[in-house]
Amino acid sequence: MKKASREGARVLIVRAGDFFGPAAGNNWFSQGLVKPGLPVKTIRYPGRRGVGHQWSYLPDVGRTMVELLARRDTLDAFASFHMAGHWDADGTQMSDAIRRVVARRTGNRAARRGISLVAAHVGLAVRRDVSRMGEMRYLWKTPVRMDNARLVAVLGREPHTPLDHAVEATLDGMGNLDKVEGARIAAG
Questions:
Q1: Cβ(18)–Cβ(28) under 8 Å?
Q2: Is 186 domain-assigned?
Q3: By residue range, what is the domain housing residue 103?
Q4: Which CATH number characterizes residue 45's domain?
Q5: What are the distances in angstroms from CA 97 to CA 30, 78, 163, 183?
Q6: What is the C-alpha separation between 115 and 113, in angstroms, rounded?
Q7: Is residue 2 part of a domain?
Q8: How large is the C-alpha radius of gyration of the chain?
């Protein structure tokens, strides 16, 4: 792509952490942490406590791309940016946000469990989408944190939805909260 940019093409690259958001498909949040469409009883976290992990809320990524594209005439022909997104410094903050949202919306307290990466590896042979996710499992063992200084220098800030709001919209979009609330109303 860099070569193509020297030959007249314009290239814009935006790198971000693990995606999550309403109606997002193949990602760790919706295929690892919680099960779409079901009440959240357990949050399965594939990382180790103490290992940081970077998350990116898709609507924030979309806003970032739109804002960069609006400035494309001022950017280099080959422009590359990193987003900071949501940094989970110790591997508990995303799970804690899910637990807070579920408790507030449903009154239920979700348990937090680890995922054995060995067991996840066994699942790789069974499902193709899990296999793709498995290729990235090293990121749960090693913290990788991208620096958004260049992005902030160009945009003045990074679009950023507070974590609990982003998690709530994600769980709503996945159908995790409506079904739980409906079940509680029907039972009550």
A1: yes
A2: no
A3: 11-180
A4: 3.40.50.720
A5: 15, 37, 7, 22
A6: 7
A7: no
A8: 18
| Long-range contacts, 184-188 (Cβ 8 Å, 24+) | 184/106, 184/107
Residue 147 corresponds to which tokens in the numbers above? Answer: 């620096």
Instruction: State the total domains in the chain.
Output: 1
pTM score:
0.84
- Whether residue 164 contacts residue 100, with contact meaning beta carbons closer than 8 Å, is answered with yes
- Give the pLDDT confidence of 116-141 residue by residue, as tens digits: 555 444 444 455 555 555 666 777 88
- Whether 6 is covered by a domain: the verdict is no
- pLDDT of residue 183 exceeding 50: no
Q: Is residue 3 part of a domain?
A: no
The arithmetic mean of pLDDT across residues 98-116, rounded, is: 90
Three-state SS sequence of the chain? CHHHHHCCCCEEEEECCEEECCCCCCCHHHHHHCCCCCCCCEEEECCCCCCCEEEEEHHHHHHHHHHHHHCHHHCCCEEEEECCCEEECCCCHHHHHHHHHHHHHHCCCCEEEECCHHHHHHHHCCCHHHHHHHCCHHHHCCCCCCCCHHHHHHHCCCCCCCHHHHHHHHHHHCCHHHHHHHHHHHHC
